[in-house]
Amino acid sequence: MRPTTQRIWLAVLFLLVGVPLVYPIWLGVASAFVTDDGSFTLFHVLNVFNDPVLREGLINAFLIASATTTIAVVIALPLALLSARTTFVGKPLLSTLILAPLILPPFVGAIGMRQLLGREGAVNALLIDLHAIVNPIDFIGQGGFALIVLLEAIALFPILYLNLYAAIANLDPAMEEAATNLGAGSWKRFFRVTLPLIRPGLFAGGTIVFVWSFTELGTPLMLEFTKTTPVQIFNGIKEMEASRQPYALTAVMLCATILSYT
Predict the structure, then answer these.
(1) Is the Cβ–Cβ distance between 171 and 197 less than 8 Å?
(2) Which residue from 79, 119, 241, 247 puts its CA 20 to 30 A from 180's CA?
(3) Most distant CA pair in the chain: distance in Å?
């Protein structure tokens, strides 16, 4: 391909992707660094870290992402090893069921949990009909941290599974055979040989799960867990004309997301 043609295609891609996608993001992020008179300032961004409520939201978002990624690894890694290393009856069905959570976003599970465990949910209705309780019980309790992590981990672990399955399936068997011949047991072989070799796949899938759960809005919103940055940004949308806080939160979250990929 000629250099002129390459430049033309580059310009076309920039117009198709850069203008409708990057430019709106730039407008939002840039608004966090300007004052009302248009001069540059870091006050709004620094205020995110100085404000205890906003700082708590960032910490909660990071903890949700970290816990979700950890649980997703615990679920996905054994399943990937099982699928890549063994053959058994029903394996195609298991592979289909593992990928089933990808069909629906995490917040759908949150809606289901509210229908099941909320004050007006099925469990309370059953207990009241059985005269076991008089007043409904709020099992969710204003959106539990643990429930958010569990729902997001169940919804997102297939992303890690796909990356780990591909990494394990592409391993050179000779590496593990050499470790076995040198006397390495199964656990030592896994931690010394297998795990280092599949680390790129683990990192790739883990990064996607971390960023997705870090920026997830639907699940905390459905469970009324407001002390997290995505929900704080959502609640601040109506204040965007009068406050720079939502723009600053967006800028901080975008920078944190970019840093997680580096």
Answers:
(1) yes
(2) 79
(3) 79
pLDDT, tens digit (0-9, with 9 covering 90-100), for 127-153: 888 877 777 777 776 557 888 898 899
Q: 201-213 burial by CB neighbour count: b if 16+ within 10 A, else e?
A: bbebbbbbbbbbb
Higher model confidence: residue 138 or residue 210?
A: 210
Q: Which residues of 132-142 are buried (b: 16+ CB within 10 A; e: fewer)?
A: eeeeebebbee
Cα-atom radius of gyration of the chain, to the nearest Å? 23
Per residue, the 3-state secondary structure of the chain, as one string, reads CCHHHHHHHHHHHHHHHHHHHHHHHHHHHHHHHECCCCCECCHHHHHHHHCHHHHHHHHHHHHHHHHHHHHHHHHHHHHHHHHHHCCCCCHHHHHHHHHHHHHCCHHHHHHHHHHHHCCCCHHHHHHHHCCCCCCCCCCCCCCCHHHHHHHHHHHHHHHHHHHHHHHHHCCCHHHHHHHHHCCCCHHHHHHHHHHHHCHHHHHHHHHHHHHHHHCCCHHHHHCCCCCCHHHHHHHCHHHCCCCCHHHHHHHHHHHHHHHHHC
